[in-house]
Design goal:
single chain; TIM Barrel; 2 domains; three-stranded antiparallel sheet; 14 helices; 42% helix
Length: 313
Amino acid sequence: MQNRVCELFNIEYPIIQAGMVWCSGWELASAVSEAGGLGIIGSGSMYPEVLEEHILKCKKATSRPFAVNVPLLYPDIEKLIEVIIRNHIEIVFTSAGNPRAWTTVLKEQDIKVAHVVSSLKFARKAEEAGVDAIVAEGFEAGGHNGREETTTFCLIPLVSDNVSVPVIAAGGIYGGRSMLAAFALGAEAVQVGSRFAVSQESSAHTDYKKRVVDAYEGETILTMKSLTPVRLLRNDFYEQIQAAEREGAPAEKLAEILGKRRAKKGIFEGDLVEGELEIGQVSASIKQIQPAGEIVREIWEEFQQFKAKLVEM
């Protein structure tokens, strides 16, 4: 397929794997890129030297383009940027912060930049900052999310109608049907997180993957809105947070309960009781742990199939 996103990133299919902490290492990124999509290494859970190791391994595993996701609130972001530039990464997805901070620096190195937003306001700011593409993420998405609670179905046309750069839809994208819907709303690519989070190549713990596969409708909740909104599966940790919020606990108290490395405990170490189990609403539709390349092919084939059906109507 040829459109602005495929041309921008030099990829075969406009299917992008989200850069998820504790899930998106070199194995997942290279598998998605090899299948024709765009794989992303999630640097948010990595020290600079670990990121460099993943970049080098990814380059050995695939000759196709891949990207690095950088959360802009990362404490030592200068070191991550240094690793990215030194290793000649061509595509960076930024999130969780102000794109003005690093977009110019990256583009001066001929790096293409996409930024994740949850509202039209931030989409406009990202375009003003000079990004090449915008990931518009609805609140159905897993992990950290926008406070606006705007759904993907509402967000994509709102953003695509008001910016000139390509829009990538994220949040609630499971298969080819949701991809086709996103394209109808103005997107030129989709970013998929939850399905890849539980793929065979994901670095997440097997127990976490199985828990997601067993998830049912309505089992994920957007919580901690006064601190940092995050969509979680229900477990004991979630209940602790909910109890504190019902009692009117301030953000400081929530931060104390959250502590450190809670997401690592849940996703990477497989602690299903006390860990932070981040995942999107589409978890209710995920019924198996698949190879990443198979997921890319299934999404693309279903997209083509349902697009043809619409043409016949």
